[in-house]
């Protein structure tokens, strides 16, 4: 947290860091420390509109105060300045704010063609195993119907085959 010291070296004196860094989507938190009598200060920035909605603020500082400047989520990397003014404009200091982009998550490691084929094969087997079981059950039931001529076996074979087709269709859609 950058510190701005007021009245430390004399009345209306201002000590600011040369440069501070902040990440897009976070807040620039300024720690204002007054070492003397209470005073009014002005914080201003005329070139910060692409990084923040902050433009100008008048503050009364008695002791230690914290002031936040929100940095936009979608702010591109860049630089703007913040000016600190005391003594009704007689003393001015400014510092640079360097906005860094948000860290990009590490990409997933690339798969070799063999790994990709193995993954695709295992996924297709996982998805089609219930369908294969239903088709085999339908074939067995139909074979039993041919041998025993019981109409219930024919109907069960038809239902098993129909369920396999519906399941395959539903899995294809998702």
Q: Which features does this protein show?
A:
34% helix, alpha+beta, 174 residues, single chain, 2 helices, 4-stranded mixed sheet, 5-stranded mixed sheet
Short structural summary:
The protein is of the alpha+beta class and 174 residues long. The mean pLDDT is 86. The longest helix has 36 residues, at 113-148.
Question: How would you describe this protein?
Answer:
The chain is α+β, with helices and mostly antiparallel strands and 174 residues long. Helix content is 34%, strand content 33%. It is built from two helices and nine strands; from the N terminus they run βββββββββαα. It has a five-stranded mixed beta sheet with strand order 3-9-8-5-6, with no helix packed on it. Strands 2-1-4-7 form a four-stranded mixed beta sheet, with no helix packed on it. A hairpin with a 4-residue loop joins strand 8 (78-86) and strand 9 (91-100). Helix 1 (113-148) runs antiparallel to helix 2.
Average per-residue pLDDT, rounded, comes to: 86
Record the strand order, biggest sheet. 3-9-8-5-6
Tell me the number of strands.
9
Secondary-structure element series = EEEEEEEEEHH
| Helix content range | 25-40%
Strand content: 25-35%
Rg (CA only):
35 Å
How does the overall form come out from the CA principal axes?
Answer: rod-shaped
Largest sheet: 5 strands, mixed
Distance between the termini: 49 Å
Give the structural class: alpha+beta
Unreliable residue runs: none
Number of helices: 2
């Amino acid at each position: 947290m950058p510190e701005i010291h007021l009245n430390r070296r004399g009345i209306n004196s201002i000590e600011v860091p040369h440069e501070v860094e902040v990440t897009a989507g976070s807040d620039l938190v300024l720690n204002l420390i007054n070492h003397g009598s209470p005073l009014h200060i002005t914080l201003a920035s005329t070139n910060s509109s692409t990084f923040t909605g902050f433009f100008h603020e008048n503050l009364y500082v008695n002791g230690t105060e914290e002031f936040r400047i929100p940095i936009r989520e979608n702010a591109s990397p860049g630089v703007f300045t913040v000016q600190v003014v005391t003594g009704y404009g007689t003393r001015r200091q400014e510092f640079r704010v360097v906005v860094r982009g948000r860290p990009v998550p590490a990409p997933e490691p690339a798969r070799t063609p063999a790994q990709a084929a193995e993954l695709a094969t295992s996924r297709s087997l996982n998805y089609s195993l219930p369908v294969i079981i239903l088709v085999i059950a339908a074939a067995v039931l139909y074979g039993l119907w041919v041998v025993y001529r019981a109409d219930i076996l024919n109907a069960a074979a038809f239902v098993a085959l129909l369920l396999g087709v519906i399941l395959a269709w539903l899995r294809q859609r998702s």
